[in-house]
Amino acid sequence: MKTWFECKIRYEKVMANGMNKKVTEPYLVDALSFTEAEARIIEEMIPFISGEFTVSDIKRANYSELFPSEEEAADRWFKCKLIFITLDEKSGAEKKTSTQVLVQAADLRDAVKKLDEGMKGTMADYQIALVSETPLMDVFPYIVPDEDGATDKTGKNADSPVIRSFLCSLPDGCRTSFNIDGKSIIIDKTGKGTVVSREDSDSKH
Q1: Contact indicator for 27, 140 with CB cutoff of 8 Å
Q2: pLDDT single digits (tens) 152-205
Q3: Which residues contact 37 (CB under 8 A, 6 or more apart)?
Q4: Which residue from 90, 105, 124, 196 could staple onto 111, CB 3.0 to 4.6 Å apart?
Q5: Domain-by-domain residue ranges, the chain?
Q6: Is-contact 170 31, C-beta < 8 A?
Q7: Collapsing DSSP states into helix, strand and coil, what is residue 118?
Q8: pTM, full prediction
Q9: Dihedral of the CA atoms 120, 123, 129, 132 (nearest 10)?
Q10: Residues ≥6 apart with Cβ < 8 Å to 179
């Protein structure tokens, strides 16, 4: 079973009106530990955020299953609480157990539809106790690289084991830099939260 971590990223975002605003956005990553979760989210965010960003919080997220969608309209993530009903063979009494799954969908109605579709293979009876939209911006499951080292259909190796092991090895209280695609990235773990910046943007502060 995958272990999910919710990581909060704080950075300066250009809003629709052209103004810059500090925002904190949650993302979900599949990782083995808090340390690896931080390394993975830094790795995923570096190509998308041009300026400085901070990993402000990491916490475990209790999801037993993920139902992603490739539909363009399905741009939101919904948390669904399911209750499974089983019968005790000896006493005949009903036993209820609950679990949480994450569904990518366009809206609440679509989330229920996709949830039922995803649960078609299960033999157990279940009830949908709750469906609520989450603030998650994106979800990054771990993808095992193929023989060419690529991790997705585009051939882009977003999950580099070398970069990740380097990021995982950094102790709290350190400040260091390394290069990705010829760009110097600075990792600062001396304060609260891990701050990631580029050498060019760092020099402006």
Answers
A1: yes
A2: 433 334 456 777 888 888 888 999 988 877 778 999 999 889 999 987 644 443
A3: 5, 7, 29, 31, 58
A4: 105
A5: 1-61+141-205, 69-137
A6: no
A7: helix
A8: 0.82
A9: -30
A10: 185
Which residue in this structure is represented by tokens 């050498």?
199
Fold of 69-137: Ubiquitin-like (UB roll) (3.10.20)
Alpha carbon 95 to its chain centroid, in Å, reads 32
Read off the pLDDT of residues 20-78 as tens digits, 9 standing for 90 and up: 999 999 999 999 999 999 999 999 999 888 889 999 999 999 999 999 999 999 999 99
DSSP 203: T
Residues 44-76: b if buried by 16+ CB within 10 A, e if exposed: bbbeebebbbbbbebeebebebbbebeeeebeb
Secondary structure class of 170 (helix, strand, coil): coil
Contacts of 108 (CB under 8 A, 6+ apart): 78, 131, 133
The tokens describing 68, both together, are 């992603």
Q: What amino acid is encoded at 77 in this protein?
A: W
